[in-house]
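Justification of resources, computational component.

The compute hours requested in this renewal are based largely on the per-chain cost of generating structure records like the one below. Each record pairs the submitted sequence with a full structure-token output. That output is archived, and it is also reused by downstream analysis tasks.
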Amino acid sequence: MVADNKVYEEVLWPYRLIGNLLLLGSIWLLTMGIITLRHDLVGKQIDSLLAEIYNKTANAGWGLDDITIEGRFKTSKEDILEVMRLQRGDNILEIDLDEICRRLEDLPWIKKVSVTRRYFPNVIHISITEKEVKSIWQYQNEFYPIDEEGEIIKTEYVPQANILQIIGEDAPKHFNALLKIVETEPELFARLKAAHLISKRRWNLIFDDVEKGVTVKMPEENLAGMWKKLAKLDKTQGILKRKLTFIDLRLKNKVVVGLSKSDTEKKVKH
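The structure output for this chain reads:
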């Protein structure tokens, strides 16, 4: 029995050795991992190496020569350069393009932007798509430019003569849905001067003149259908060219109109 035990132990010792080595190796890897995480040795070494590479490449002809910009109309060049924080001679390989994109997208007029590197000469190229003002929101005696998404453009803006005016609390939130409908009839849309959101539910549309034009009372439901009906009435009967104060399309199968004061007086005299 003793001899058999010795033979058995001689057979097992290599496996025990391998097992112990694997255990020690696992402990060593775990320990080094903890040390690395605590002290960020790998990260520091990589950062140091990259810094050295950037310094050498900058001196070897990889310095920034210029910045080019396309698509800029409302955004000032000074604002763009300020948020980019770049200088001539900066290493073009070191510039973080994603970070520059994020900074530029924070500017009020910028809707979309792309930033690319170009070499020999070394150029950072900025391509910008700016927001388009689709309406002016009048609220509490203040005016705010609204883009095609119904979002407020948070910047100073001088209203243009032909910009649609929207009125009412929460009007910008509902404007995008309205815009998709009214743009389906371009000729009629061109005459639309103001849109007043009533009780956050439905629109009154004012044509030709904000103060003296015809007000069309649109229903809460089936706005698209009533818009097409209005376009048809104007094409076939010229309803918006008549001397009316309002047109009410809220009732099914019925159009109610209000005559202007001067036209009513003429009818009374006759």
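Residues 56 and 62 are 9 Å apart (CA to CA). The longest strand covers residues 110-118.
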